[in-house]
Amino acid sequence: MAVAIPVGALALSVLGWGSAPGFGRTRSRPSPGKRSTVRSAMLEMVLDQDSGDLQGSVIAGAFDGRSLEALSRDEMVELWRETAGDGESRSLLEAYLDRRHPGWRVDFEADSAPWQNGPTSSGAMSEEEAYQVLGLSPGAGEAEIRAAH
Q: Is-above-0.85 flag for pTM?
């Protein structure tokens, strides 16, 4: 609930809803100049309801005092990892990334694979590395290699 309420409020304000349908109210237009602010332990997000522009700033952690817009892609990945222990901050950051950088999830997942397994080397993969990737011992037969692949 602690994460769902702020994220839900942010989502509803992005859509311009005054309240949820079915509760005796209808959809309303935001008042001119109105801004919504949501804050977590690490992030503060501000939504301009007129333009739909979403801005964020880091209020704790390694990037304290920086705006999300000013972070490089690699810094954004690092911030995303840093929010792992704070579900509310993680949810806000993911909402920001969904809006500003569609496809970020595929990008971040692709980048995390080498980091999880340690540094990668440049150049062609050695035969020993290939066996490790497939989970086989050196000298495995062609049938075993095909099955593992």
A: no
